[in-house]
Predict the structure.
Amino acid sequence: MGLAVFLVAAAMAVAGGIGVVAFHEPIRSVLSLVVVMLALAVLFLLLSAQFVFVVQVIVYAGAVMVLFLFVVALLGPAKELGRGRLRFQPWLAGLFAAVFLILLWVMLQGVQYRQPAITDLHIFGTVQWIAVELFTKYLYPFELTSLLLLVAAIGAIYLSKRSIEDL
C-alpha cells in the first residue's frame, strides 16, 4: 500500500513540476506548484515526518501558494514582450538540457548511499527531533537566517516609506 501511495504522489509531483514549466498562463503554473507542494507533503508523511507534513501543508501549500496566486491574479495577465523567438532557440534549449542531464549523471556516479546517523526513527521528523537539530547542530545558520530576514524587513519598510514620501 505504501509503495502505491508513493508512486501516485511521485507521479503527481513530477506532473505538477512539468505543469509549472509547461503552462503558459501563470495561474495554471501556480496551481501546478500547489499540486507539487501537496504531493511533497504526502511524501513527507510516508517518511513518518508528521510535523514536516503539517508545516508543508499549512505554510507552503496553504499560505505561500495562496500568496503567489493572489499576486499573479493582482498583476493580471502578462504581456508577451518578444513574440518572435529565435529559430534555433528550441534546439539550443534541448542542447543545454542534454548537457545538464549528462553532467548530473556524471556527478552522481560516485555518490553512495549511507545509512542515516539517526538510529531511532520513531523521533525522526517530530517536533522534538527538529528542535534538537535546530538549536544544537544548526543554531548559527538559524540565527544568521533570522538576522538576514530582520535586515530584509527593515529594508522593505525603509524603501516603502521612501517611495511614499516621493509621491
